[in-house]
Amino acid sequence: MNAIQDLLTLMFFPGGLFVLALGMSYEWIDRKLMARVQNRVGPRWFQPYADIAKLLVKEEVIPADSNRLLFIALPILALAGALTAALYVPLAGFDPLYSFKGDLIVTLYLLSLLTVCTGLAGANTTDRFSLVGATRTLTQLFSYEAPFLLAMLGPAVAARSWQINEIIADADGQWLLIVQPVGFVVALIGLLGKLEIAPFNAPEAETEIVAGALTEYSGRGLALFRLGRHVELVVGLTMVAAFYMGGVSGLPLFVLKTLLLLLILVGIQSLVARLRIDQTVGLWWRWGTLLVLAQWLALVIWEGVQA
Amino acid sequence: MKRHTLLQYAARSLFRRAATQRYPAERTPTPERLRGTLHWTPDGCTGCCLCSKECPANAIEIITIDKTTKQFVARYHADRCIYCGQCVVNCRFSCLTMSPEEWENAALHKQAFTVYYGDAPHVERVLEGFVSQDSASNPST
Amino acid sequence: MDTTVPQRFVVPIGPQHPALKEPGHFEFTVDGEQVTGASVRLGYAHRGIEKATEGRNWVQNLYLLERICGICSHVHATAYCLGVEKLAGVTPPPRAQAIRVLVAELERIHSHLLWLGVAAHEAGFDTLFMYSWRDRETVMDILEALTGNRVNYSANLLGGVKFDLTSELTDKIYKGLELLEERTYQYVDVVTSDATLLQRTRGVGVTTREQAEQLGLVGPTARASGVERDIRVEAPYAAYPDFPVKVVTATAGDLEARFVVRLQELFEAYRLIRAVLEKLPPGELQARMPRKIKPAETVSRVEAPRGELFYFIKSNGTDQPERIKVRTPTLCNLASVCVLAVGSQLADVPMILAGVDPCFSCNDRMVTVYSGDTDHTQWTWKQLRQYGIDYYRR
């Protein structure tokens, strides 16, 4: 009925541009906190905006031996995935824009789209750093994705729903991290893996493989990938805060809870060295998956007993 | 002395003043021994040219105006200078000093790097080309 | 794709690579993440310094040689000065020798802290990197106040040193050392207990004592494998006979041991500096040097932060040297990278590389190999230029 209003919602507020701005702001907070921990001054508030603006106006170099269409389409797809995922989560404390039964699964898959696109983008070029980076990106995807998914399903099992709205409503402001601590920790650390930040930044370890899968990207493509990463940071924080920290209704509560999470992320990020890719895989499959599976089983049994 | 774990230290760092600073808005004072731009005064110079002979970068030239009355002009190439301070050590008459304040020496034109020191009329004569450009340190020409 | 022929997948590191701060070229053949072959190619930063020394006088060469290395410039100047003084039969005054030791140890602190930062960065531990480089500023400030420059201190003169200590400077050094000592305890703590860092260092790149001796490793790299090799102890120079050094060694030979050895050497450096400051001999700063030196040749060895630095100096009776040969410690240590890299993970290679504290530009020499079938004629500048143009036109 209201196509123009829908369009505005998608393009500007609270979808589209607003999500991008929010993502860049969180990126700035992340960098600023990191700098303060390291006793540096850190960037000023407009730095992420300036970075993206600079990249957008720069020439994009497309390697001769890569598939042109894929090279251009992958970053667009990655950003589109992240932006679409943002529509289904209670971003900035608003109710999700769209909601349907099973949107949790869709959102989680949309969030993985960025990583898959990054991996494909690396494999699309013949650059050796990109190829090694792509291998690592996809290896890491396989290692954290299952535990992260299980950790996100924990609250869903408790609420007996696959709908993000209903899960949050079911928790009713209770902090699920008290009853599902393992899920919370795994979700938070899974977020680190998803965003490829320390200690899980082996796929883009600059001292080994330059920029990993995105080595050949410049200009617009790189800007879109980075925007996708920024958006995913916000969406990921929102989901963990909404599921495990008693919902995020209202802007102040949203900001407070997500910033608290971000502070924890920065703390982890700044106090660890980079893990090798085999150590990452080992950590996730040996500990992350087993622990979260154990908790998940316990949950299912508990729900079964109650029913 | 209390020792902290890295976590405690990092947490404290959050509230500490940053170790880096916003140059050029903020700047630390330079130590007095800092070797900056070279300065030369004509008083006392005997034209022995020990400064230019042992300069590793040929950055200083002493141009003779009048040998008998010991009048010289120094041409200093700041772009060649490696700021080692050997000339200052060599000069027995303390004609050479290095300024600790002048260390931001970037310029947009190459001319800025060739500096003449000496009495104004003498420098003018050198610039106008009245004096043979051969430096005293190079007596073969 | 033909699968019968095993594909060689080569990952190049350098000459332009974020892991290297200087141009060097390494080629690692990898099978997945496993390194199966390694080769090194040097020479990207060859500057012809040895040849250039033959056209400059003794004093000018001091500053040229000091610029071989930006990190350990003082030891280069010291090695050269000691050699030239030996040739000329000049004994520098004891105060000058003590100040040389003082600056050398300050430089060792700055070099080891720099290395700690670089190694931490290679391991992806950026906070440790930022902290150690911040603390390194303390010693850089001391060096700047003492000598007037942050790098290339030019503290040495032939026959002595340029700068004397004042009581203000002594206080500044004491204060700086106190801060650094406190921080170094924390670094030792972190590198021996931080779980993520230990996963990247413990048991990685293990060099056994036999290997270290066979490969001819020098400096902290060798000492981490239990080889007690330190020129300051074996052949004390400058004021080291008066201020004896305790050699720090470890037995593990892995990267963790190299971290620990370098950090423990910092404590030894703090102790030495305090000893020098307490018992600084009075007297002159410089002995008179002749301008020309009679024909002779000599060898001068000093312990640079990275290991043994070797100078061969030959004079011919003029004010210019006949030949100067420099062998920097990196050259001895670099071969070990290729040996250790084979069989390790690709992710560990930058760490192994950083583990020897490489300094590429110092180490580039030109070697001309004459064989029977090549044309020995010298090329003129014009021919060389034309060769370059033709080479890149292809």
Helix content of chain B: 10-25%
The tally of strands of chain B reads 5
- Ends of chain C: how far apart? 29 Å
Name the average pLDDT of chain C: 85
Question: Element order, helices and strands of chain C?
Answer: EEEHHHHHEEHHHHHHEEEHHHH
| CATH fold-level assignment of chain B | Alpha-Beta Plaits
**Biggest interchain interface, per-side counts:** A-C, 28 and 33 residues
- Percent strand of chain C equals 5-15%
| Average of pLDDT of chain B | 81
Terminal CA distance of chain B reads 68 Å
What is the gyration radius of chain C calculated from CA atoms?
Answer: 22 Å
The chain-level structural class of chain C is alpha+beta
The name of the CATH architecture of chain B is 2-Layer Sandwich
- The neighbouring-strand order within the major sheet of chain C is 1-2-3
Number of helices of chain C: 15
Fold topology:
The complex is a heterotrimer of chains A (307), B (141) and C (394).
Chain A: H1 3-11, H2 16-37, H3 47-57, H4 68-87, H5 103-124, H6 128-159, H7 164-171, H8 176-179, H9 181-194, H10 206-209, H11 219-244, H12 251-270, H13 277-306
Chain B: H1 6-13, E1 38-40, H2 50-53, E2 60-66, E3 71-77, H3 86-90, E4 96-98, E5 114-117, H4 120-128
Chain C: E1 9-13, E2 25-31, E3 34-41, H1 49-53, H2 58-66, H3 73-88, H4 94-122, H5 126-147, E4 156-157, E5 160-161, H6 167-193, H7 195-201, H8 209-215, H9 219-223, H10 231-234, H11 255-278, E6 296-304, E7 307-315, E8 321-327, H12 329-341, H13 349-355, H14 360-363, H15 381-393
Antiparallel strand pairs in C: 1-2, 2-3, 4-5, 6-7, 7-8
